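B., you asked whether I could sanity-check this one before it goes into the benchmark set. Here's the sequence:
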Amino acid sequence: MPPPDFNEANFLEGRRRKSASSSFRPIVFFLVPLFSVLLDIFLPRFVEPTRTLEFPLLITIYFSLMKRQPLAGIIIGAVIGLMQDSLSQQPLGMFGIVKTLVGFFAASVSLRFDVNNPALRFMLCAFFFLFHQFLYWVMVRALLGQIINVNGFDELARALLNSALALPLFLLLDKMRDKEA
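And here's what the prediction gave me:
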């Protein structure tokens, strides 16, 4: 069996195929983000180590990647971010702005690459986690005038942990997609 060919053609496979977005039932679009935000808020109260997990971000990344439409990514990120802001102690709009940008860029990336590849999903989740954390740090610093202590190694470890969580979560969410005709 020949070794896998890691060239540009393999990564652009998704572009050559039908570039239609994945479809989900409307209830999935409502319940999954709501559950992720509630999980993000309440789970750390009972299990402290889960504070490092960023469920709403992972859901934003997944739905934005699967929709393959930048406008849809913007809407998905804004809705999930504002929902997270409204149910947490954060100033309204902080997560909304950051997740809107993440949703836009994730949907834009999905137009170029085959985002069903697990290795690419892992790398994208790690990148977007770090991107999210950096944008959030900039927003807190610029808009609120607050200083957040950031440890680069801790953030990298959190990015890898969230990316590892994303792989089985994305497989579960893949099963919720409507089957194409």
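One thing to flag: DSSP finds eight helices and no strands in the chain. Otherwise nothing jumped out at me.
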